[in-house]
Amino acid sequence: MIYERVAPATPIRQGDIFRDLPRVDVSLEMMTVIAREDGEAHPVEQDWLDALTDKDVVEVPEEENSPRFVRAVLPLAAVNAIVITQDCDALQDEELSFCEIGLLPEIWKQIAQVSSLKKYADMLTRQGSDQIKFFYLPSDEEVAGFSKRMAVDFSSVLRLPRTELEALKQLRIGRLNDEAYQHFREKLSEYFRRYPVDPWYSLSKEEFEEYAKNREGVSPRPWQE
Description:
Elements: E1 3-4, E2 16-24, E3 31-37, E4 40-46, H1 48-53, E5 58-59, E6 69-70, E7 72-73, E8 76-83, H2 87-90, E9 95-103, H3 104-107, H4 117-130, E10 134-137, E11 150-161, H5 162-166, E12 172-176, H6 178-193, H7 205-212
Antiparallel strand pairs: 1-12, 2-8, 2-12, 3-4, 3-7, 5-6, 8-9, 9-11, 10-11
C-alpha cells in the first residue's frame, strides 16, 4: 500500500508512524492531584483552578512567568500517531510533535454508514481535496498493522521528548511512501495555515439573498443588507 518499512537506525522524520504513544487525557473539572502535607503525599480530587492555587499541590517557580507544575495522576491512552515535525527540526528539537491516528469512521462521521465499495471509492478519492481536517490511511496489516481504515486527525496533537523517542524506535511502524508523504505534508500545511473566511462576504446584496436561501448561520455584511 502506501507504507514503507524503516530500518531501526534510520533517523526519525516527518511522516513516520508510531504505535502505542502516550496521550494524556485531562479533565479541567475534576482531576486527581497529589498534595504534600507534613512530608506525606496523598491524592485529592480538585478542579484545575483549585489545583493552581493550592500550595500543597502546585510548585511555584522561582522565576516570574515560568510554568507552575502541578503534581497529578492522569490517565494515559496508548495511541498510534504520525510525526508532523519537519525533518530538519526532527533531528535536533528537544520535542517532536505528532498527530494522532484513529479509526476513519470516528474522525470522518459521514463515512460511517457507507457499505458499498463504489461509495467508499467515491468518498475516499474526494477526501484528498475536500476534507482538510484529516488524512486518510488505508488498511494494511503487513506493514502498518492497520486492520481497518484509519485517518490522521490534524486536530489532535501530541508532543514527546525526541531523545527518549529515539531510544524507543521499536515503536515505529514505518513511514509513508514518497507519493503519500508529499500529499500528507501539503494537507498538513493547508490545515494549519488555512484562513477562516465567510465565502459570501464579497457578494452583492442580490447575490447574497440568493446564497442565503436555505442556509443557516449566514449573516450579511452591512453592504448586503
